[in-house]
Fold this protein.
Amino acid sequence: MSVSGLSGSAAASDEQVDHLFAAVYAELRQSAHRMRRLQRGDTLNTTLLVHELYLRFKKSDSARFESTPQFFAYAARALRSIMVDHARSRIAERERISDMTMLAILDAETPALSPNQALALNDALQQLERDDARAAKVVELHFFAGLSLPEVARHLELTTRTIDRDWRYARAFLQSVLGDSSH
Amino acid sequence: MTANTPGSKVRELFDGALEIDAADRAAWLIRQTDDSVLRARVQALLDAQRTPSHLLDQPFAEKLSGILSTPAYDLSTHAKTASSMIGQRIGAYVITRLIGQGGMASVFEAQRSDGSYSQSVAIKLLRRTLHTELELRLFQREQQALAALEHPNIARLLDGGITDSGAPYLVMERVHGTDLLRFVQGRNLPLRERLSLFVQICDAVNAAHRALIVHRDIKPANILVTDEGVVKLLDFGIAKILNEDAAAAPTTYAPMTPEYAAPEQFDGRTITTATDVYGLGVVLHEALTGSRPKRGDTRRASDAITPHATQTPPTTARNTGELKRFLRGDIDNILRQALAIEPNQRYSSAGDLAADLRRFLDGQPVQAHPPSGWYRTRKFVGRNRLAVALCGALLLGLLASLSVALQQAREARRQTAVALSAEADSRAELAHATSMRDFLEALFEPVRIGIAEGKAPTVRELVLAGETQLRENSRLGAEARVEMLSFFAFLHESIGELSSARRLATESVELAQRTLGSEDPRYAAALAMRGFTAVRMEDYLAAEADMRIALPLMEKTGQRGWALANAMQTMSSIENINGHAEKSLEYAKGDLAERIFAFGAGDRRVGVGYNNIADALEAMGQYRQSILAYESAYAIQLARLGPDSTETTLTLAGLASSYWRAGQWRRARGLFQQAMDRFDHVGGKAQLVQIYAVVKLCMLEHWLAHAAEAEQTCTKARTLTAASLGRNSASWGDIESAEFEGDLELGDLTKAHAAYLLANSLYPPTVANRLRRGRLQSSYAEWLMRQGRWDEARKLLPEAISDISTRPHKIPLLLAQARLLFACDKSPGPECSTGLRGDYEATLAAVADLDHPQTLIAETLIAQIDLPVDSARAMERLRAVIAKVETELGVTHPRMLAAREVLARSPGQAE
């Protein structure tokens, strides 16, 4: 997808936000639809997700983003927050259930990313931010927002080589933190 | 982040290290800094860099769906479900209250609406609806299988069904208890009592295995313990029902609970009863020590316990020392075996694990040790009923890992055919054609199954007459004709008319292309059939060319069922020949899945699918597994089709072949002969597998140095081969090869040479022939060396080794390597690298558990090399091999005599 039509003017207007957002929306919908075809459940509700994204977007101060890269950074961060919130609420819900049978039954539906894994990833990412902020940014744009590494390089205005190395380091960092908890 | 912070230094070293060769990194790191903590950190990162990660190596979007399908994001249906269901009826039950909501299901408490069963139950209502009748059937089948599981330690699945709105539900026994870990930790249970509890768990899992159900998601949360201390297992197979689509998307598939999942669940490899054993191992470890074993940690459990463990104190042990002492030795070994990375090396079933734990508790010696493959296989084959059940579990495990989405009903197939055509008259014609085909299929069924000729004498005439009818019938439209031609090709193949099969298939393809076009699904099916007939004639190149077009087209046009099954089977054979064993297995699995789709799991036509998988396993060198698969398929076919059926005998031949490759020659010989008798009894034109079986027996008799039997069998092999495949075929070459090796065994070098020349001329340098050529050259090298022509032998062996290495069969490799070492010992040259001996020893280690008779050939050569250097050790080593293979070869076998002669010749030792 390309939203390069928009310039990097300061303080983008609401109209520009909507425009950009529409593009991101379409993109997210596409990926969600792809997943939906695989899952075939009636419960998949991409609209809600994306609307939520938009709302958070509008509410936040940094709605006045400066350029496209910031939008993506924002979208990535929002996705990350959604992941964390979701994980926390699942864990909270489980804690509420004292009936062990029910807990076991409900546990049988772990999605591809368990709540614990999600929180562990978030923590690991926070550690990475303290260690190497730029590498953490690469993770957000590449892993969460789904930009390819060359696209990330373009957005951050760095060479592909630099970004490749950043990703390589970030991935190793995260894996070394997460690896301990993978069992 | 400045340049001097520790973080950035780590980064700098990390980046720098990756510019260096892997081998030199450690040394480079040491030169860069004295700080060992820093080095350790960098090293940890370097290790992590190499480790694959299911989380990080896939984009987050793949995980989105799981997150999106939770109540937080599904506000609309959430509220509806909660309140509206109370008081509603589901099946024979009335919902009394909502217990919980999950992402994919809601759980309610309910009671029987007629008041007959006073206890309340739990009903799990899935959110998704089943869209088609086919999904319905699948769900029902699964649910019936689970409901049949009755065991005091397994939470009963009482009922299941589909609501009017199409949502599946499961009714389960309510269990009141705590999960295993909380139970043992909360009560501070002594270690021995934990083991006793665990034995209960293993027995329960084993009961499920006997019913051919693999749990796949064993973890403490699924194991409840009531206040009275009774174990209740939950959720058998439920994970599978819920996640049918997870299996359909292999790239996103992750095990249900990664912390307890076996390695093969991450790779999408076969799930078997051993997968459950792994899960049980993790749970046992945690129940005893309070923490799960670290993956990749090769230490013993007792060593891995440190006083600084951050987990809650696990036991009543006063200190970790007491726990260590309890674990050391037997429990260490039991855990190690349960947690082996390779499924082959674990306990094969939960029952075996339970048995070893019982032995420990009784003070008996445990059996946990690096497993000998034959120990287990011999055990299985002896106890028939258990063998069949376990083999069935293995096969079910194979099934479980397939992406079988739908069970086929005849109506659905017709519907698909109908959907393909647009106009009414074509629809009618198709319906007509399909029903005609159904009729013919049913008519020819006995042929396919191959009941002995006396029972179905007119089958051949039927096929030929049918073809005549087809040609004379001008009312059939192009589409129907294409299908019928293809089908007749198939039938001709069944009765052994290979070239007319191919002819008909070609006709079908050409007609389809002319009248239907190259995008039409029937064109694809016709191509696939032609590929199938080509494979049967061993023309793999032509077959592959057809399949490379047919398969993508079939996928594109969404074809399922019988046609796709044959296509998969054909690709499996092709990949086998190409040496792509893993791909061959994948296609074999696909074939089985489609057969089940087309015919239903209980149908006899599914049997061949099991065989194909076993074939693929054998081609991968996994003899233990292929033997199990064959044994199981054989038992099923014997029961369903009887001993006279061709299908049953084909399986028997496959089983014989696996035993043969695995080195159990006497057994293989008996089975080959049995198979041959059966083939003769059924009569008719020889099938390909039959020919292969006779050729293999001919080879085996030569290797066993049974001159008279070899002559008889090989003559028969020649007759059959000449009639079907011809005197120029690779199979004829195999017979000549066998003669060559037989003559070599008996020392007749002149006669051997003639056979060699003929064999060599029949093995053109194609991909399919590489292994054959390599083996032949390796034997030729021996022929040369017997005449002292060391240099010539030495020069041709490296290429032979590389040819042999294209397949995973280790024994031929072992022989070639030994021969090269021997030649090098006698006359060194540029082909003699220093790593050669190491390679040989590695190959030897890889086949150590087979006790293959041909190891004697190799080891005899090695002994001759080693004797001058360290005669005591060399002799001991050779004696050990002699002892191992004595039963198979017999004391008068030429190789045995040669080996003993080597021993006798050694300095100062009388034998």
Observations:
- Chain A touches chain B through 65 residues (CB under 8 Å).
